[in-house]
Structures are given as C-alpha cells and as structure tokens.
Amino acid sequence: MKFFAFHLMPWDRLPADFAERYDSAWTTIPNSLYDPLHGGKLYNDYLDQLVLADQLGFDGVCVNEHHQNAYGTMPSPNLMASILARQTKRVKIAVVGNALPFYNPPTRVAEEFAMLDCISGGRLIAGLVVGGGPEYFSFSLNPTHARSMYREAFDLVLRCWTEEGPFEHYGQHWKLRYVNPWPRPVQQPHPPIWIPGAGSRETIQFVAERRYAYMGIPYFHLDFFQRNFDMFRDACEKNGYTADPEQLGWLLPIYVAETDAQAWEEYEEHLWYFVRNLLKGLVIFPPGYTSARSIAGIQRGLQQFMTVCQTRDDIERGGYAIVGSPETVREKLQTYIHQLGVGNLLGLFQLGTLPHELACKNMSLFAEQVMPKLRAIGQI
Question: In the prediction, which pLDDT does 380 show?
C-alpha cells in the first residue's frame, strides 16, 4: 500500500456570500477576489506541507493543473514540482497531471517532465490528462477535439521518451519537422504514468489497454468508485491480464485529530467552505467533451457527487471524507481500501480554508498513528 499527500492549493478567502452571489468558482470568477500577497503566503505554506510529507514518511506527493479558478490555484504544477524536486529527498513526485490538449506543441510536456525526472533523480510520476471541462472554456478550445488531441499528444510524448531523435511527426493536430527533445528522463523507458478519471469509459479502456494506472477523481460516493474500479478491472481482464492494485488510486479528503469530536470541530467549517464554494461549477462538461455513453454514466454519478451532501451524516455514510480519531480513520480506511481493492491512497490533508497549522497536525497524526498500522496490514 502506498500513501500520497495530494494538494489542490485552494483559495481560502472567498467572501462569505460567495455561494449566493456567484455562479461558479471556475472560469468566470472575478480575479479581483485574488490577493497576490496572500497568494504568495499560501503557495509557501502549501509547499511546506508537501515538504513535510517527505519528512513524515509518505511515499509521494501530488500536484495538479487547473486554470482560472479558486478551487486549485496551480496553473503550472510543473513549477511546484520543480521546487519539490529540490526540497525533498525521497518521495515520489506525482504531477497529476499536465492537460495535453492545452500544450502547443505537447512536446513541451515531454521536455518539462524529463527535466523534473532528472532534477529529482528519477522520482517523477507522470500524469497525462485530458483536462477538466471548465478549462475548455478558459482556453476557448473546441471540446469535440479533446479526445483526438489527447490521443495524438499522448503518443507523441511517449515517442519523445522512447525513440531516438530527431524524428518527424505529422498528425491531425500537430505537424513537427524536427522532434528531438533534450533532456530525456532518468527512468527508462519512461516515468510511471498515472491517468485520472471520473468514470469515462474511453479513459478506463485506454488506461487498461496500455497497462497504466487509473486514479479515481474524488468527491463521489463510495459506490461510484466501486463501479469505476470494477469497470477498470474488467477492462484489464479483457486485455488479457489481471489488474494490479497499484494500478488503482483512491483520492479523498482525510482529517485526523485526537478524538472524533475534536476532528469534526476543527474540520467541519473548512469542509463545507470547500463543498459549497470551491466545488461550485467543477462538474461542467461542454458538448462533445466525451461520448454520449460516458456522459450518461457521469450524469448518473453526479447524483452521488459531494455537493448533494447537506449534513455530516451524508459525508460519513457516503465515504466522501474520512474524519475522526486515528483509530476511527484507520478502521474506516482499512475497510474501504479492502472493499475498493486499491493500492494507492491519495489523501487531501489540506482542504478549503483549513489553516496551515491544522493541515500539518493532520498529516503528522496520519503519518504517525494511521499510516504505519495500515502498512503493517500489508496488501489489504
């Protein structure tokens, strides 16, 4: 079992009446709400939390890419990963990921990921993603091209890492006379590849076919994860092999305090800030972004999305977040990890407005009192 600290780097100062005044935390949210001086403090606090994960014994840290939003103020995860490559010594650095259709040409991703792998001494995990629905509005990019651009860019990045250059590339979306990336990654033939998904059949089949790792996008009911992970295992069987648990990752908010009551007292207001403000507008799928069959499944899943939760009981019953004492968190995680059959746990230990000091305490308690006992269980 591997444990990762995942960070969104959220904006924590939306006005109290944000949910009533604004339609979304994405795309059209006024950037006058952003205070650069406070933003600088947040970036440094958040980086310190990920460096702490290295010191506490986590297996890895995760950063990701989002644009024009308050949910995750990290338009360039590679910048953050480059700092972490220097300031950490041991953890894997998972960039989950770079949204390939937004890079022109996508060989830029192959170059920057290779730089990160070199600087970190071969600790990069490469996330290669389609990009979120709202971001196709932010980039004014035709969403009907999303999948074909992604497939072409994906294969081009792979060629950059595995074929000697220079070579030519003439595809549907990019035509490049000279492809000859310097540097090349330390890990051969290429860094491990993770691909996140929210239930798209195309994504699940693609990941299974290529034998990469599938990371479940969070904030859904446990039943939604179960269906998607079972679908992935079935897809692997159809491709002639049995899925390894390390090909599956479960991402979710986690908060640990000394007692169950103290955990909820310290955490609850920050969780609801996240649910009611930062998730607003996240699940927008522009026309053509994915297939009709997949969008039908995703829409059914949205009935179990975290924004439908109204009470603490809703959160706990659906397993949307695991909150409590070390013993409570350990028992719930042991049960759910076994049920879902995943080999990677990706925890959001800072969420919404959760202050730096509480985020660090949360990570420390998890690392000292939860993680070792889950490791001791072995492949649960």
Answer: 45
